[in-house]
Amino acid sequence: MKAAVIAFTRRGAELGEAVARHLDATLHVPPRLAPETGAAACGSLEAWTAEAWQSRDALIFIGACGIAVRAIAPHVQDKFTDPAVVVMDEGGHFVIPLLSGHVGGANALAAALAEVTGGQAVISTATDVNGRFAVDVWAREQGLAITDRQLAKAVSAAILEDEPVGFASDFDHACPPGLRPGRAELGVWVTCRSGGGPFPRTLRLVPRRLVLGIGCRRGIAQAAITRAVDAALEMAGLDPQAAAVVATISLKAEEPGLLEFCREQGFPLQVYSAEELAAVPGAFTASSFVRSVTGVDNVCERAAAARGGTLLLDKQALEDVTVAIALADPAQWPDPHVFENVREKQE
């Protein structure tokens, strides 16, 4: 977690130094305190907050709650995108998660800082106060994307009202406490698939487990790659949020359109040599033309499967782009037939 820490008094700066050291962060103080504390000078609280809001996962204010509230007010959007905001009194007696307690991790951060200071974390979120399952916390811990914010709120409300909430997973997840396997009107489904689900009202939680194997002609535009990938994911019935990495041949390591696509989508790019791709076991769609250009008979399928993944979508060609999709870490799937319907869509 990348954190920013600010204090406003000498005593607060002493505590701030310990907090910043614990979080491997930089402490900022008003200019008048910088020389004697050795902390970085903060000329403008408004500018400091705006910069930290964009570049940090957590903001820690050591001072009055009112100062923090007024500073962050222009930037607050929602709990799914806002950074964690924690306020501490200068004595370290109380540590208050002010914003993004669950998704942003402010509650956990407050508890950790309270251990450092010997103080008390002041937690006010209902699921925590009542010791109930929090779907947003569990999703964050498991690395799952929440696909429907309103349904996530409905799940939390149902749990607090002791209403049944179902659970299903395509992965090797045990049913969390507070949910139940089997039939229910409202339920949580861990899946890479798009569309409906096993419950009348299904909250899909999506792990990033898909490898996008991509081949393309030289000079291809980023927009063409985006269209081809979107079409492939739709054809396979897979959620775009499940995509984790792009894989291709080393010949394309500096392809501008592909690099721009990865930057825009936030995907790392994994490249393999022709020899490495040729050594990937399996039956792949061979092309003599591709072999003549790249030195291997197939790029997209072999690249997608190179991590040991199972192909879910064979080679699809659109606008001089080829795309194949594989599931990384197939050992996570207890049922090898879970994606049979995906592959049937290709036939």
Structure description:
- The protein is an alpha/beta fold and 347 residues long.
- It is built from 14 helices and 17 strands.
- The strands form three sheets. It has a seven-stranded mixed beta sheet with strand order 3-2-1-4-5-6-7, sandwiched between helices.
- The chain is globular, with a radius of gyration of 24 Å.
Write the layout of secondary structure elements.
Elements: E1 3-7, H1 10-23, E2 27-29, H2 34-37, E3 40-41, H3 45-55, E4 58-62, H4 65-72, E5 84-88, E6 94-99, H5 106-117, E7 120-121, H6 126-129, H7 135-142, E8 144-146, H8 149-160, E9 166-169, E10 180-181, E11 186-190, E12 201-207, E13 210-216, H9 222-236, E14 243-249, H10 256-265, E15 269-272, H11 274-278, H12 288-294, H13 300-305, E16 310-318, E17 321-327, H14 340-344
Helix pairs in contact: 9-10
* Average pLDDT number: 88
CATH class of the largest domain: Alpha Beta
Radius of gyration: 24 Å
* Quaternary structure classification: single chain
CATH architecture of the largest domain: 2-Layer Sandwich
The coarse silhouette is: globular
Number of strands: 17
Total helical segments: 14
The CATH topology of the largest domain comes to: Nucleotidyltransferase, domain 5
Give the strand order of the largest sheet, numbering strands 1, 2, ... along the chain: 3-2-1-4-5-6-7
Structural class computed from helices and strand pairing: alpha/beta
Distance separating the two termini: 45 Å
- Beta-strand content: 15-25%
Instruction: Provide the domain count.
Output: 3
Helix percent reads 25-40%
Q: What is the makeup of the main sheet? A: 7 strands, mixed
Poorly predicted sequence stretches spanning 5 or more consecutive residues: 332-337, 343-347
CATH-assigned homologous superfamily of the largest domain? CobE/GbiG C-terminal domain
